[in-house]
Structures are given as structure tokens and as C-alpha cells.
Amino acid sequence: MITVEKLKAFGADTADGLERCFGNEALYLRLVATIPEDSSFDRLNQKLEAKDLDGAFEAAHALKGVLGNLSLTPLYELAVDITEHLRSRDNIDYSKMLADFFSKKEELGKLCAE
């Protein structure tokens, strides 16, 4: 089960995240627990594989917003990097960025499952 302490150790700005949830810890943790299963991760990966930079941008931008609102800093920073490259329509190899992003997502998923 995810806790505020685990999220702090993960690198999340839990004080900010909790503030955005009006101090409601149960709500904050429930929202965080939904992140590892968010379909936008798969959509981002699929759109990049298809070289659909517009669709990939939409998925990355959506993730950036959610991750930022929950102050999941390690994931948010990676989402910002990916989003900005996609905003510029950079036709680059995104595989390293995606690997890092998905690795952090899996790390959060493990914390949520403990």
C-alpha cells in the first residue's frame, strides 16, 4: 500500500500534492495509486511507435498534467522532457526517455502494490 513516506522516498513533493488535494491524504494516495495503470502511458508508447508525434504529444501532455498535479516529481520531470520534445515535433529516438519514464512508473507501481 502506498504511503506518504514511501512517496517522499520516491522523490514526490508530498506537501504540495497533499495541498492540491486540500490536505485529504486518503484522496491523494488513492489518486496516486491510479497512476501506474493510467492508459496514457500505453497510448504514448503506441503513438511514438507509430511515429504519430501529434498523438504522442497529447498523451505526454495529459500525463504531464496529472503527474504535476500530484507532485510526482520524478515522473513529472521526465514527462516534461518528453512533452517539450514532442511539442517541438522533434523526430528523435525517444526510446531512452521512454525507458526511463516507464522504469519510474514501474517503481511507483511497486510502491503502490507493497
Summed up:
The protein is an all-alpha fold and about 110 residues long. About 75% of the residues lie in helices and about 0% in strands.
Question: Would you give an account of this structure?
Answer:
This protein is mostly helical and 114 residues long. The protein has helices at 4-10, 14-20, 25-34, 39-49, 53-69, 73-87, 95-113. Helix 4 packs antiparallel against helix 5. The longest helix is centred in the last third of the chain and has 19 residues, at 95-113. The termini are close together. It has seven helices and no strands. It has one domain (4-113): Four Helix Bundle (Hemerythrin (Met), subunit A) (Up-down Bundle).
Summary tags:
single chain; Four Helix Bundle (Hemerythrin (Met), subunit A); 7 helices
What is the CATH architecture term? Up-down Bundle
Poorly predicted runs of 5 or more residues: none
* Topology pattern, helix = H, strand = E: HHHHHHH
* CATH topology category name: Four Helix Bundle (Hemerythrin (Met), subunit A)
- The 3D shape can be described as elongated
The overall pLDDT, averaged over residues, is 96
The portion of residues assigned to helices is over 70%
CATH class: Mainly Alpha
Largest sheet report: none
Distance between the termini: 5 Å
Task: Describe the secondary structure blueprint for this structure.
Elements (H helix, E strand, L loop, with lengths): L3 H7 L3 H7 L4 H10 L4 H11 L3 H17 L3 H15 L7 H19 L1
